[in-house]
Design brief:
It is a single chain. The chain has 324 residues and is α/β, with parallel strands linked by helices. It has a single domain (3-278), classed as Decaprenyl diphosphate synthase-like (Undecaprenyl pyrophosphate synthetase, 3-Layer(aba) Sandwich). It has helices at 3-14, 28-36, 49-69, 91-101, 107-115, 136-150, 168-179, 181-193, 197-213, 237-242, 262-274, 291-305, and strands spanning 19-22, 72-80, 118-123, 158-164, 222-226, 249-253. Strands 3-4-2-1-5-6 form a six-stranded parallel beta sheet. Strand 5, helix 10 and strand 6 form a beta-alpha-beta unit. Helix 7 packs across helix 9 and helix 8 (181-193) runs antiparallel to helix 9. The chain is globular and about 70 Å long.
């Protein structure tokens, strides 16, 4: 058994319900420019958006392959947000991003889904179908709906949920219509039968996740995003909106997520699944700390506290002399 296969076996044993992660797909233009345009006279210009799409999609598939080969079972991949259609990046970017999304149903992606034993879902497309029929976004919603209707889903397969421009409250509002009166009545009966609060949340989660995703997956175990500009944004609207605290872990890399290496991904999953924390079941930490440990921790904390630049979330701008 290879090291990766051995690690995957440990992950599957650790998460018998299926390791479930959220990895937003962002910084795609930056990724392409960094890797291909460094020596161009105008490095910010993307001359071929077809070449850009091919490169970015290969990167996405490599990242997803790594996740599944390391024992992952369910992956949520936010790729569009509804704010995209309203923000300051302009109509040219909106049209480009929308047209690129049609490619998620092409022959290359279909072959990838089949090779990886993946069932693909397009979540949040109810917002696209809310556009006027003449708009490109509406056609994207129609074609994604049709693609899902012809896909031969099987419950035991891996699941890849593409998050496509959802408004979570819209999904919640539509849940009863999506699930049907019988399912809604069953939800009400289940809630009336439980007193345990976590069981109550799990019941609600399964109902609304099924309505929003078109399938049910466990609550995510981790979120892996980027803060390349300093911002600790949450770029996964549906998974985050369905959470209620809990043990989900948030990881951030200071570069575009498509540049995450298999080694880094494995390190994240190792820490998630097998990392040791300082915990105490008592009212305090009596017996858990030594004088040497607490003194060293005090010095570390004071050193960080004295430097404002250690604050996560401060914006940064790229510069030629930036070596940080």
């Amino acid at each position: 058994m290879t090291d990766r296969a051995s690690f995957a076996a440990r992950i599957r044993e650790r998460y018998p319900e299926g390791l479930t992660g959220v990895i937003p797909i962002g910084g795609t233009r930056t990724t392409y420019i960094l890797e291909h345009n460094r020596r161009s006279e105008n490095p910010g210009q993307i001359e071929s958006f077809s070449a850009y799409a091919d490169h970015v999609e290969a990167r996405i598939r490599n990242l997803m392959t790594g996740f599944f080969e390391l024992g992952g079972q369910n992956l949520v991949a936010p790729i569009l947000s509804y704010q995209l259609f309203e923000d300051e990046r302009g109509p040219a970017y909106v049209e480009m991003a929308t047209r690129q999304s049609f490619r998620l149903m092409n022959a290359d992606w279909t072959a990838f889904y089949q090779a990886q034993d993946i069932d693909p879902y397009f979540a949040g497309i109810d917002t696209l179908l809310h556009f006027p029929e003449r708009e490109l976004q509406y056609r994207l919603g129609v074609e994604m709906t049709a693609y899902q209707q012809q896909w031969p889903y099987r419950e035991e397969r891996r699941k890849l949920i593409w998050e496509i421009a959802p408004i979570p409250l819209f999904s919640v509002w539509r849940a009863q219509a999506v699930m049907g009166e019988e399912a809604h009545a069953a939800l009400e009966a289940s809630l009336n039968a439980v007193a345990d609060l976590d069981a109550m949340h799990e019941t609600l989660y399964r109902y609304y996740a099924a309505a929003a995703y078109g399938t049910t997956i466990p609550r995510p175990h981790f979120y892996l995003g980027n803060n390349r500009s300093g911002e600790l944004k949450l770029r996964a609207m549906l998974p985050i909106s369905l959470l209620c605290g809990g043990p989900v872990r948030f990881f951030y890399v200071p570069y575009p997520t498509l540049l995450i290496t298999p080694e880094t991904l494995q390190a994240v999953l190792e820490d998630l699944a097998f990392g040791k924390r300082l915990r105490s079941s008592n009212a305090d930490y009596s017996g858990k700390l030594t004088q040497e440990l607490i003194e060293a921790e005090y010095q570390r904390v004071m050193r960080l506290s004295s430097d404002p630049e250690t604050t996560l979330g401060l914006l940064r701008a790229a510069s030629a002399d930036d070596t940080g």
